[in-house]
Amino acid sequence: MAIRNQLRLLLVAGSLLTASLAKPVERPFDDSDDDTPLPLVIWHGLGDTYQADGMRRVAELADEVNPGTLVYAIRMDENAGRDRYASFMGNLTDQVAKACADIAAHPILSTAPAIDAVGFSQGGQFLRAYVERCNNPPVRSLITFGSQHNGITAFRDCAATDWVCRVAMAVLKGDAWSGAVQRRLVPAQYFRDPAQYDKYLEHSNFLADINNERAAKSEQYRENIAKLANFVMYMFEDDTTVIPKETAWFDEVNGTETTPLRARKLYAEDWLGLRALDRKGGLKFRTAPGDHMQLSEELLREAFGDFFGPLNLRAGRSEPRPMLVGDGEL
């Protein structure tokens, strides 16, 4: 009853948004001579808004690095307050569908041969879901910063005055696997505790699907990820917000034991196309100094210069992460 009352308290601040999934369109990346930068879409993180000063500065930096870049910030509502609320509250199936529909209907994005994408924190796995589920227009390069690709095993702390965050976290800690929580609270939908793996597979509303972990695999998901030119995953070296921080690289952390992506069954059997992408040099592991989302403009400029710009851009300067002890072979 307490959980139900807390959910009702959250629901008064907004409502779920629904939209139809757009069908993927096959648009192979060609050797165009056009030097116009590809459009860039960005998706903010938990507790942020598409109109935040930080997101505006990201758009400015993208244009400074590659002049003429059209930047579109994904939002669940034109009202910034309701957009922030939706980062805590909503059904991620509906939210990704809305992003797919909005991008496909955009007068400029919809006519582009491809787009680039950058996701901050949870926005990274949401953009990966865009690639897997619709990809219309297709993403060329996807960059994620501190994203929870392999889920989280604990929930974040909240500021004393942030009642939306505090109520949401209280509900999550109560029963993350209930149908009501999985349909309505965003962080619960990428909660993944290896100690409760069977419950996760049965009840997860989002992550178990986009990670292709269930018995029935989506070939579309695998193909769409494998078609990326670059998938660049940044992990914050001193991240204390995202637990475990290694989720940013798809690593599996179970207690004190860490299994790198390349040593996981998900990679060996190529459930998501990550192995195919890695073999062509498109899967890149990078680190960022500091705690969660402590991003410098220098690092953003470097990333935008390496992977964004015109369609015929080179593949980016960085090599994939060197093989580590325990990693699977390429």
From TrEMBL:
One Gene Ontology term of the molecular function aspect: palmitoyl-(protein) hydrolase activity
Enzyme class: hydrolase
Residues making up the signal peptide according to the UniProt record: 1-22
Any Pfam family matching the protein: Palm_thioest
Record's keyword terms, sorted: Disulfide bond, Glycoprotein, Hydrolase, Signal
SUPFAM superfamilies assigned to the protein according to its UniProt record, in alphabetical order: alpha/beta-Hydrolases
EC number assigned by the record: 3.1.2.22
Matching Gene3D superfamilies: alpha/beta hydrolase
Family matches, as InterPro entries: AB_hydrolase_fold, Palm_thioest
Source domain of life: Eukaryota
PANTHER family reported in the protein's UniProt record: PALMITOYL-PROTEIN THIOESTERASE 1 (PTHR11247:SF8), PALMITOYL-PROTEIN THIOESTERASE/DOLICHYLDIPHOSPHATASE 1 (PTHR11247)
Similarity field: Belongs to the palmitoyl-protein thioesterase family.
UniProt-recorded name of the protein: Palmitoyl-protein thioesterase 1
Organism, scientific name: Trichocladium antarcticum
